[in-house]
Amino acid sequence: MSFRLLTYNIHKGIGGVDRRYRPERTQEVIEHYAADLVLLQEVDEGVKRSQFHQQAEMLADRCGFEHRCYQRNVRVKQGHYGNAIFSRWPLEGPCDLDLTQPLKKRRQALMARCVIHLDGRQHTIGVVNVHLGLAGYERKRQLARLNACDFLGSLSPRTPVVVAGDFNDVYNDLGRAVMFPAGYNAAEKSIRTFPAAAPLRALDRVFYRGGLHATGAFAGRIGVARRASDHLPLIVDFEFAPPDAVDA
User: Fold this and answer.
1) What domains, with CATH codes, occur in the chain?
2) DSSP state of 247
3) Helix/strand/coil (H/E/C) assignment for every residue in 102-167
4) Residue 74 in contact with residue 81, Cβ under 8 Å?
5) What is the pTM assigned to this prediction?
6) Which one, of 236, 242, 222, lies nearest residue 29 by Cα?
7) Sheet with 91-98, side-by-side order of all strands
8) Tell me: the pLDDT tens digits for 6-50?
9) In the chain, what is the greatest distance between 2 CA atoms, to the nearest angstrom?
10) Which positions are tagged coiled coil (predicted)?
């Protein structure tokens, strides 16, 4: 029993090199990797630079995702941008968690329960989409607040949870400093995703806990992915652990 997750900072659909707004490139990248769960960051809603498109609805519709939720993070002169989750399966109870630190840009986590039906079984996964801050101390405080939040506290320790997104993990220290002590595993080993044209940094991360195993992870490097954004997408394949293999 398996599924695929894709996390992707889409940079509002604007190319990292040519600076052109081409949402069809973003769509092509998402469709190419055929993920079941898609976590997007820097999604525009009603902003001039992206032709006032409602990008979350537009991309979800174009890519065939019935289930979606969007979170407004940052207001701009016209419109706003934030995070979005698309899913092949129902998303229940979507909610926001304010991660904003004093004197820093507004940041939130978008969280939901994904109810998956596979091979005659029902699974619930806690899905958390983040776009963390630019300062090292800021990121650690944001993750500490996340790990103490009511949403995660309401889930059984056996319930699978995936925390993914643009961690801005410049120093590759957030796993060791925060996530591993909180019981998470890294789904990948610092795969470089930024800048998309010639990746040097592993800014995008996927951590998980509960009854899951990561069976593979890679950055999406098809030609259009190098042009569509300033980040490459990060793709992780998961399997559910057998029920008797999950710790009580």
Assistant:
1) 2-245 (3.60.10.10)
2) -
3) CCCCCCEEEEEEEEEEECCEEEEEEEEEEECCCCHHHHHHHHHHHHCCHHHHCCCCCCCEEEEEEC
4) yes
5) 0.95
6) 222
7) 91-98, 108-118, 121-131, 161-166, 204-209, 185-186
8) 999 999 999 999 999 999 999 999 999 999 999 999 999 999 999
9) 53
10) none
